[in-house]
Amino acid sequence: MFLALGSSCSDPALASVLSIVKNLLNLLQIVGPILSLIMLSYHLISLLQKPDDKKRMSKIRNSAIALVVLFLVPVIVNAAFGLLDDSTVLSSCWNNANFDPNQGGTYVPVGDGNPSSVYTDPSEYENGKKKTTNSSNGSSNSSSSSNSSNSSNSSNSSNSSSSSNSSSGGGTGDRAGSGNTASSKTLFIGDSRTVQMYAYLNNNWSGANFSSGGVHVVQNDIYVAEGSMGLSWMKSTGIPAAKSYFSSGTAIVILMGVNDLSNANNYVNYVNSNVSSWKANGSSLYFVSVNPCDGNYSHLNSKITSFNSQVKSGLSKEVGWIDTHSQLMRVGFSTTDGLHYDKTTYQTIYNYIKSKV
Description:
The chain is of the alpha/beta class and 357 residues long. Helix content is 49%, strand content 8%. The protein contains 13 helices and six strands. The longest helix is centred in the N-terminal third of the chain and has 38 residues, at 12-49.
């Protein structure tokens, strides 16, 4: 994990460069003016000692200009990217380059801060992060605590089936893809949220990440997921690793997007251009809505709503749409860090997806 890798930047190389540049600019904004002030003071004192030194006046002017420029350049750059918001990949990565990497699209074990490590017990994750109350989500989340005490498959399944057309929280309901029928196997392709769903529900946190443990097969479920990843990973790693499981009776379920919310159109283009070949062996294909955040990540919710709207409206009718976002907004949810969920919420997401495939 690169220093200050933003949660909405899917290109690690770009994130690395921007993190370095942004950190250097921030350092320059502090150190530069201090050095300029020192030089300005030195030249002023020298001028007092030699009032007729015309060259010293020029140096004083240059030091004053340097003081202003060194302070304003980072401000201007940040303001320019801020005006662009997340309309481009570059601005999205830049604007999110100051996020805490331990709260981004990966799970980090308590203590050593090494993202390559893995948990031995999922409780370590929840104990390591302050659990939010979801008060920012309003009354729609008031049922979160009651749902948390009922995490059995049967209770969550009943919740799932009762809200297939829910439109709260910016969602627009589920949509069955063309030719999609009930599936015997489910293939999940996703990021850290999917990594944790697998780890919680199967009580296996050792090597849960794709980069550590590869593809995970649990009875009729197959997981291909890696933390902090976006569309570029899906193209280069996720889909190639999953293709051998594209077969009759398999539901291909894509849970991507939270790490690159500005990439909606590219997701649509990539999926639409491949849907026919992915379904050629009898598979069905679904795209799952990006789910809501709270706490330190609440600011992403408007972008999540926009992403979901763009993807659903742009996807081919051959691709099913599973609106877990609306389901969570209806029944409530609990996060561990604002971005990732507790076990009960992951159970709700899992049950809802399974009820739709």
